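Lab channel / #folding
Pinned by the channel admin:
"Please post every new chain as: sequence first, then the structure tokens as a reply. Keep commentary short and put observations after the output so the thread stays searchable."

First post following the new format, from NK:
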Amino acid sequence: RVIERTRALDSALRFSENLVEQLPIPVWVEDASGRLTHHNRAFRDLFQIRDETWTGRPAADLLPETSAAVPFETSIETGTNRRDVIIDHSRLDHPAPLSDDSTGGGGRIGTITDITERKEMERRLRELATSDDLTGALNRRAFFAVIAQEVERSSRYGIPMSLVMIDLDHFKQINDRYGHAAGDRALKLTTQAMLAGLRDIDSLGRLGGEEFAVLLPQTPLSGALDVAERLRCAIAAVDIPVDPEPTTIRLSASLGVADRLSGETGPDRLLSRADAALYRAKDEGRNRVVG
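Reply from TO:
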């Protein structure tokens, strides 16, 4: 009976080890000193390691040291790239049943869930929710949300900020003469030219049709006027292909500039003054900056 029971226990142990080995999620076991005593195939595949290479080595060489409550999100190096993961683990108060080595009290068993694809999907969904489909600039809703946030920050800390309103001159004529495909191409190329001249902290939004706006944090009116002039020149330098090839055309733009005045805690007045400056630029002959 002892022999039969021993065989049954051995069989159960082999089954447990096989089961963990075949699990699709990475699993590891470490002893009380933090050294790896077991890791399954999914764990080895994630970190691109061989079994004999890492058994007995510190788990901290692969896994982040943290006192955070579990489970927790983090990023880890996996050999060739970084992966976004959720790590969960629990304390082992008894020797691990999955290894010949005893982990003793204080060891732990853990799992890793790779959420890289999920995080990328979330990022893309955020982009879809905040970006203009055609140009990639912020859409109207997202841009106004950014303005409100920046005005509040500027007001609280006394930091200058400015706004540039941009309208592409006579844009309707492109659609009428060359077709909407040419108009779309013009909007894309113009957006790329503007983005190339902006800082990472600046925000470009498409408010609708051929109207854009640029938010310039930490920028007084004088600096914003310089930026606006550079944007005007960049737009004017874009060659836009139209049919018949190799014909190209160029656009001009009217720009209105305003900065946040002392005491303004909301975006409405700033938007109104920048818009009024834009209309003055149009009234004065277009293809110019007014602030």
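NK: The chain has two domains: 2-120, 131-290.
TO: also worth noting, The longest helix spans residues 2-22.
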